[in-house]
Amino acid sequence: MIDLQLHTNDSDGTWSWTHVLEKCLDMNLSAFAITDHDTIVRRNDILGWAKANDAMAIPGIELSTCESDQTIHLLGYFLDGPLENLESRLEFLREGRLQRNKKIVGKLQSLGISVTEEDVLKAAGRATVGRPHIARLLMQKGVVKTMQEAFDKYLAANGQAYYPKVELPLREAIDLLHAAGAVTSISHPGLLKRTPEALEASLKLWRSWGLDGIEALYPSYSLEQTAFFERIAWKYDFIRTGGSDFHGENKPHIQIGTGNGHLNVPDEFIEPLLKKREEVNRHSGVS
Ligand code: AMP
Ligand code: ZN
Ligand code: FE
User: Fold this and answer.
1) Which listed residue, of 28, 111, 127, 193, carries a Cα 20 to 30 Å from 208's Cα?
2) What is the DSSP string of 210-273?
């Protein structure tokens, strides 16, 4: 079993990166990737940990991108470098998130909720700030009972305090990750609000832009969705990735590896992923 989507408190998860990696090792996972939102701060730490523990711990990222007015999360794996251009675009995204926080906090305040920018920054610490930090804060302040309620009422795209964040165009993001020596995969494509026909057309287009893979296994997928992505991967020659999208206590129903209890991403996904890594690095001139 493998797990290629794990979040830590370097973005909006609640566990530290070492806690997550140690749990993966305890569970005997054959490969596992940390994919925090819009940050690669732990890349070197993860490589060092992988070496020390003789485990296939993969540094990754889940990048916020946009295409046809929709947010698309793009996973990147390995990050064999060079990383300077990626770092500079990540800095731009981080700055955008800080500006966005101001807007969301302002909207919450105008709804009569006493929350400040400082509260949010304190809750996030050094992590990439995200809406889950704000949701948790609203729960701690007793404004809502659950994080889900915070999203439904205030933070989801149709919520009262929603404000969009800055995102990179998907096509640029694919190129950016490739140039940084990363294999790309669309995160949870089954969550995109598109008809199967439209989704297939999009994936076909993105494949022509160089996209390498799709997250073919994900906790919330139905059997039909899993079969759909299996077919799409085969038809357009995508590699398949899969992960739990573990966020610690911010998604308490999701466990590492097994997701909601039914997830089991097989070891056979590893070899095509490694092959793709070589191909990407060969094309990008990464040694
Ligand atoms: P952000 O990076 O600030 O846009 O926050 C994105 C994260 O918020 C996602 O990774 C999810 O974990 C969470 N999230 C987004 N939309 C919802 C929603 N409608 N309900 C619950 N959680 C959500
Ligand atoms: Zn997240
Ligand atoms: Fe995501």
Assistant:
1) 193
2) T--EEEEE-TT--HHHHHHHHHHHHHHT-EEEE---B-GGGSTT-BTTTBTTT--B-GGGHHHH
